[in-house]
Amino acid sequence: MTVRNRAGGGSSVRVSGPVSTGAKGWAFGIPTVDFASLGYRQDEYFLEGEASRYGPRPGTELGWDGHWQVVPIEAASIVTRIVVVRPIDPTAFNGTVIVLWNNVTAGYENFTAGDSPALYEAGYAYVAVSAQRVGVHGTSDNPQGLRTWNPERYGRLSIPSDDYSFDIFTQAATSVGPSRAEDGVDPMEGLDVRQLIAQGASQSAARLATYINAIQPIAKVFDAFYLQLYFGGGTPLDVGDELMTVSGAAADSAQPQIPEGLHLLRDDLGVPVMVVNSECEAMSCLAVRQSDSDNYRYWEVAGASHVSLQGIESSAPRMERDFGFSIPIDEAMRNINQVSVAPVIDAALQHLQAWVCEGTPPPVQPLIEFDGSPPEIVRDSNGIARGGIRLPQVEVPLACNSATPRAPDIFARLVGSYEAFPPERLRLLYGSRDHYIALFEKATRSAEAASAIRPRDGDLLLTEANASVPF
Are 86 and 116 in contact (CB under 8 A)? Predict the structure, then answer.
């Protein structure tokens, strides 16, 4: 099957698969869920052909307002892959495909969104796209790319530069979208696809920011964009041989290897754009905070950080399967932030789906409070950020969770901090276990009423609270 861009490039790719070669017997990075029990299946496909790279339209610049104008410059040959996860029963499909920009910050591909029960309960399909060079080729000092991981399966994959990633993402989306070709291999196996939502987190959110400002106006492929843990700046169109990883791109190792607070996201595209951030990214985005509008929503989660202990723990089964090891959770690791943003991420997706399909925008949420010059987060007597979406672990705390790093390195900045309150402080705050649980339940129901979390996740948080109260 040959797929052509709707507009803006004219390059094309061929779809082949499903792919089943290779000694390991599975596609790298796939979720560890039991697909069959969920009524789902996953398949991998290759995309082969040409992709274009882009540059600013002559006489224009990529300015602060985000209203960028670009043109295709040249095309190059690419071979890459997509992983398709979809309901087996067509009647269980809700019509929306979430197109994920795989995160390559660690030097290999990560698409953890596929582990969320919210995807399967609501009937989404999702497609994980290998759009960037490092995900395929790895780095020279620590090669963990697809070609090294399974040469038999992935040895012929090739992406010459991240400059072509934006068109690769467009073409991957077109190959699974409503206007996909009817002849040849159909990765969606005939499903009635009605909407495409582009999703990316962290470094991938930065790439989607550039896509929103520069590519969507000419490609017009996506019906909505969902950016998570976004630092407020898009990645450049032209990086050449540069590889985007945690250790690779910035001179200052205390800063994330992605742009911070550089420009606005354009909201004149007529499609919803939603951003969900933790306290960590809120600090970077303060300079480019945008007002909520008919096409834009911005949420911030107080007390949370870019990476949580729960997030690291949830990655363990996937790392053990793919690499044979996982990050050890020792005592030092238990000092990192322990407020997971996952319940808010899932609630936001539910709102975004309603926004796309029914025209019902998500509720406006309070933002984290800043004050001073230079601005700093306003904190309460427990050291916890004021304002923002307040999960019950933050509203009724047993510890101070924040995005405040304990060291100047990049890892410390991303994982924030956790400091348990001493027993005497807990007794002063709550008096008894029953009183604490009553307050926690009240805070949980308040977060549900604000539509910041779903009731099913509120019930899970209550169960966890009952099991973890230290008094």
Answer: no
Domains of the chain, residue spans: 1-271
Cis bond upstream, residue 18 (ω within 30): yes
Residue with tokens 């040469």: 151
Phi, psi of 56 (to 5 degrees): -60, 140
CA trace torsion 90, 91, 94, 100 (10° rounding): -20
User: Rounded to the nearest 5°, which phi and psi values hold at 100?
Assistant: -95, 135
Distance CA 219, CA 382 (A): 48
- Burial string for 251-279 (b: 16+ CB within 10 Å, else e) reads eeeeebbbbbebbbbbbebebbbbbbbbb
Taking the C-alpha atoms of residue 284 and residue 223, their distance in angstroms, rounded to an integer, is 27
Q: Is 288 left (phi over 0), alpha (psi -120 to 50) or beta?
A: alpha
Confidence of residue 114 (pLDDT cuts 50, 70, 90): confident
Task: State the Rg of the chain over Cα.
Answer: 22
pLDDT digits (tens, 9 = 90+) for 13-63: 999 999 998 888 999 999 999 999 999 999 999 999 999 999 999 999 999
Backbone φ and ψ of 210, nearest 5°:
-65, -40
State which of 114-118, 141-145, 249-253 shows the largest mean pLDDT: 114-118
CA distances from 229 to 64, 198, 232 (A): 20, 14, 9
* pLDDT of 190 higher than 60: yes
Mean pLDDT of the chain: 92
How is residue 253 written in tokens?
A: 């190792």
